[in-house]
Design brief:
Bound molecules: uridine-diphosphate-N-acetylglucosamine, calcium ion
Structural class: alpha/beta
Helix content: 10-25%
Distance between the termini: 101 Å
């Protein structure tokens, strides 16, 4: 079987986006627009992948690792035909087929691309292009057919006669061509049209004049070939994508109390019988176990959560792991490097960072736990602060099993509390405390009877 190359067109500015950011870098479903079609094309195991960049080239190149990709720059964006020609150098000795995709057409499926490739090879075609039947064809190039129904050419909307514009069959902008035919034909493309551009679709007429076999395949679901040209279209597609992801998880046994306000990125996985409340965003490599409960207003990025975890209302979690049965929130902030063992409780207004908590340990109120390791069944009292930073360096705190840390305690790192230590309330601890010890800061407690009344009288007197 012959080899396959992929050329992805991503040089355009995307004028209608009205953005400083190149269009293909706008995120859809949490990843840059052009990566969608690129990742789908990779499923076909191409031997060469060429990405044509131009507008914002440097920024676009940083969005994808350069391994296995040839970047080609199109200095001036003077048409799709010219853009493909810019990639010619990468195909000098290449006699296989080239699949041409647009960076702004993200939903094209592997199935459709495979169907095109099979059709192209079966018919031994020089060029196969994807078409779609649209109720609303405005903006797309129209497919022209002869009396026998064979393709006769493509006319861009701006160049079309009113009669041609009535055609509902449009060019999807996705092509498979034999490489030698493609690059030879592109040399013959002219720019004598309304836009003064070198149109890739013009290779259809050139091929027909050479009596080459030109084939079309019609996409089954036209939503696959929708292009993104404006922010409205981006938002509409984001919504579609989101709805189909939500649908997939509901069909897999996950309850979404309000699918309209649930945002689940493609890369996320969720276990059965998990119940997710409104205003939840699950992003990146987040993994949610089975039978979990998420009350709502949760924002999770790269969070790995075991079965039967309960996230109460309003939690933000980034790059952390939580094991089975833990209860988090309401109003908790779990930052990178947090690892909570089974049945840990994190309560309201607790922040953790680089914090490892052993099984059954609790920190229920108003606490900061940073750069700390805590054993099992330890209780961290309200208002406990690990003082891990002196303005220059970060230091570690180690706390053992079954430790009782009283409220309003400051633990000045580096320091440690052995197993079964008891920290009295309102202590500042600066040293390593041996297992089983009590630690407290002696403070004199003074009482002045009648003081409030005296003070009030004095203040009133001053006002007169
Ligand atoms: C193009 C097709 C049209 C088709 C439609 C499908 C042409 C002339 N027209 O129109 O028939 O119906 O796609 O979506 O091809 N690009 C470059 N360099 C350039 C110009 C464009 O890299 O000089 C890239 C763009 O970044 C984009 C893609 O090519 O990713 C398509 O260009 P765009 O200007 O969006 O073409 P359409 O007007 O949508
Ligand atoms: Ca387009």
């Amino acid at each position: 079987m012959s080899e396959l190359g992929v050329i992805l067109l991503a040089a355009g500015q995307g004028t209608r986006m009205k953005s400083e950011t190149p269009k293909v870098l706008h995120p859809l479903g949490g990843k840059a627009l052009f990566l969608h079609a690129l990742e789908t094309a990779r499923q076909l195991d191409p031997t060469i992948v060429t990405i044509v960049v131009g507008h914002g080239a440097a920024a676009v190149q940083t969005a994808h690792p350069s391994i296995g990709v040839t970047w080609v720059t199109q200095e001036r964006q003077i048409g799709t035909g010219h853009a493909v020609l810019c990639a010619k150098g990468a195909y000098e000795a290449f006699t296989g087929e080239v699949l041409i995709l647009s960076g702004d057409v993200p939903l094209i499926s592997e199935r459709t691309l495979r169907a095109m490739l099979e059709h192209h090879r079966n018919r031994r075609a020089a060029l196969t292009l994807l078409t779609a039947q649209l109720d609303e064809p405005t903006g797309y190039g129209r497919i022209l057919r002869d009396g026998a129904g064979a393709i006769a050419g493509i006319v861009e909307e701006k160049d079309a006669t009113p009669e041609q514009r009535k055609t509902r069959e449009v060019n999807a902008g996705i092509y498979i061509a034999s490489a030698p035919f493609l690059f030879a034909a592109l040399n013959g493309v002219k720019n004598n049209n309304q836009q003064g551009e070198y149109y890739l679709p013009d290779i259809v007429e050139i091929g027909l004049a050479q009596r080459r076999t030109i084939e079309t395949v019609t996409v089954e679901d036209p939503r696959e070939m929708m292009g993104i040209n404006s922010r409205e279209e981006l938002a509409a597609m984001e919504k579609n994508l989101r709805q189909s992801i939500n649908q997939k998880w509901m069909q897999a046994g996950v309850t979404l109390k309000d699918p309209d306000t649930t945002y689940i990125e493609e890369s996320v996985t969720i276990g059965k019988d998990t119940v997710i409340g409104p205003n939840t965003q699950l992003c990146g490599q987040t993994v949610i176990g089975a039978r979990c409960r998420i009350d709502g207003s949760a924002f999770l990025t790269d969070a790995v959560i075991g079965d039967e975890v309960y996230l109460r209302f309003s939690v933000v979690m980034t790059q952390c792991r939580v094991e089975r049965g833990a209860i988090i929130g309401p109003f908790a902030h779990l930052r990178p490097g947090t690892a909570l063992s089974a049945n840990v409780h994190i309560g309201n207004f607790v922040e953790t960072k680089e914090a490892k908590l052993g099984e059954g340990t609790k920190a229920n109120h108003l606490t900061y736990l940073g750069d700390v390791t805590i054993g099992r069944d330890t209780n961290i009292g309200a208002g406990t602060i690990t003082c891990n930073y002196d303005g220059f360096n970060k230091y570690k705190t180690a706390i053992g099993d079954r430790v009782q840390v009283g409220s309003d305690t400051t633990l000045v790192a580096p320091m440690s509390l052995g197993d079964d230590v008891y920290v009295a309330t309102a202590s500042t601890v600066r040293h390593d405390i041996p297992a089983g010890a009590l630690v407290y800061n002696p403070r004199e407690e003074r009482v002045r009877e009648g003081w409030t009344e005296q003070k009030r009288r004095k203040m009133k007197g001053n006002k007169k």
